[in-house]
Amino acid sequence: MLIATTTASPWPGRCAYISATIFIAASGATNLTYGFNKGDSLATSLVWAGVAGAVAAVLALSVPALVRSIEARCWSAAVMSLAALLLSGTYSVTAALGSAAGGRQNAASGRVSDRRCQETPSRSLRCRQRRTGRAEA
Questions:
Q1: How far apart are CA 38 and CA 124, in angstroms?
Q2: Which of 3, 27, 46, 59 is the most exposed place for a label (fewest CB within 10 A)?
Q3: Does residue 40 belong to any structural domain of this protein?
């Protein structure tokens, strides 16, 4: 039996906030991973990770800012929020695609180099270094 009430259920809003939080966390983690792997030393990796984290924060804050500025009819703020959303969203998509492509490239280059070492056993300096894990003089 259904009882008609005028009070709306809070669950659709809660589910929307939970979904948005999961998306923002996943996007931020992808950005941080992509940014950290972009550096060639620890210092540059930390700088790139910081930049990627800042972009993730801008992405997380630009959607509510855009909604509020449109509701307040503050069009200049809406344009700036939309620009921030587009730029940070583009970076996030690029980070996701670049991270996936980089992983595939690393896996493919590892398979190719292992195959080369198997074809030319122990004559190649690179194969000996890869097998022992250290550089030889």
A1: 29
A2: 3
A3: yes
Q: Please provide the DSSP assignment of 17-85 as one string.
A: HHHHHHHHHHHHHHHHHHHHHH-SSHHHHHHHHHHHHHHHHHHHHHHHHHHHHHHTT-HHHHHHHHHHH
The reported pTM is 0.59
- In total, how many domains does the chain have? 1
pLDDT of residue 45: 86
Q: Which of 67, 53, 64 is nearest to 25 (CA)?
A: 53
Residue 119 lies in a domain: yes
pLDDT band at 100 (very low <50, low <70, confident <90, very high): low
